[in-house]
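Weekly sync, protein design subgroup
Attendees: M.S., D.O., the rotation student, P.L. (late)

Item 1: inverse folding check
M.S. brought a backbone from last month's batch and wanted to see whether the design step gives back something sensible before we order anything. D.O. pointed out we never logged the input encoding, so this time it goes straight into the notes. Structure tokens as presented (235 positions):
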């Protein structure tokens, strides 16, 4: 569904991605793990067109989207949940969700999707008239994921969903991510520093170091890999 081939991405003259190749098949959950500054967020931003590649190609279902503007890429069904959530703090929970559906006209279906995200995260239904900025960090992450779902994405790009959250909330969020993948058949591409949970949740994973992919395998095999254990699982 998504294919990144020989991607080189720069910020000015700083090279963040040094020729990476990643494939995400329809229906898969893929995790990209790596240390701080490895280039994980840049990979997502290059995929969603926010920081386009200088060299290489990004394809969505065989169509070259390397230089397609980000809003067009959203319309094509690729939706990114940025690191740090970035919900609209002064809008209510329900208004934040409406913003996620701003490209859609199908009111009845929008209502159904809103009911669906409230069923995934009942706390959001309880808080629907409350400004987003008053939610806890975990609730804001739930809202950010839900807002993305309101665009009915084919591919959901999640940037560090665990960032700054308590372990119990992180577990809950990862179990909902699996549920979304299974129930909605949404393809999911996660970048994460929490290698353990990210690899457990993934069909396949990629390991990134200094802007390059150093390993790829099934989530299960990567969890059992001695180098991964030492470098990312603290074992
Ligand atoms: P983290 O887990 O800390 O978010 P990451 O793996 O997501 O890290 P990136 O944010 O993609 O890493 O950063 C990759 C490299 O690009 C780093 O060396 C970083 O300093 C650099 N970089 C990222 N954003 C910018 C920017 N806007 N301007 C200049 N350099 C940047």
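Designed sequence read out in the meeting:
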């Amino acid at each position: 569904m998504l294919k990144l081939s020989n991607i080189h991405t720069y910020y000015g003259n700083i090279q963040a991605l040094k020729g990476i190749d990643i494939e995400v098949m329809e229906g898969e959950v893929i995790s990209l793990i790596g240390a701080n500054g490895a280039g994980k967020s840049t990979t997502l931003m290059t995929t969603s067109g926010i920081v386009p590649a200088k060299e290489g190609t990004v394809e969505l279902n065989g169509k070259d989207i390397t230089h397609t503007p980000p809003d067009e890429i959203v319309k094509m069904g690729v939706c990114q949940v940025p690191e740090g959530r970035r919900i609209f703090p002064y809008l209510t929970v329900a208004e934040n969700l409406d913003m996620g559906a701003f490209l859609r006209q199908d009111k009845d279906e929008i209502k159904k999707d809103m009911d669906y995200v409230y069923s995934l995260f009942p706390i959001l239904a309880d808080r629907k008239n409350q400004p987003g900025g008053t939610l806890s960090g975990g609730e804001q992450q739930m809202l950010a994921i839900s807002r993305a779902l309101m665009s009915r994405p084919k591919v959901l790009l999640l940037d560090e969903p665990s960032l700054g959250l308590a372990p119990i909330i992180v577990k809950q969020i990862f179990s909902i991510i699996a549920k979304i993948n299974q129930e909605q058949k949404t393809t999911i591409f996660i970048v994460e520093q929490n290698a353990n949970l990210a690899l457990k949740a993934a069909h396949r994973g990629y390991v990134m170091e200094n802007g390059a992919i150093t390993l790829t395998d099934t989530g299960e095999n990567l969890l059992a890999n001695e180098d991964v254990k030492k470098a990312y699982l603290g074992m």
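Discussion: The chain has ten helices and ten strands. The beta strands are 2-11, 14-24, 29-34, 55-60, 63-64, 78-81, 155-159, 187-192, 204-209, 212-218.
Action: P.L. to compare against the previous round before Friday.
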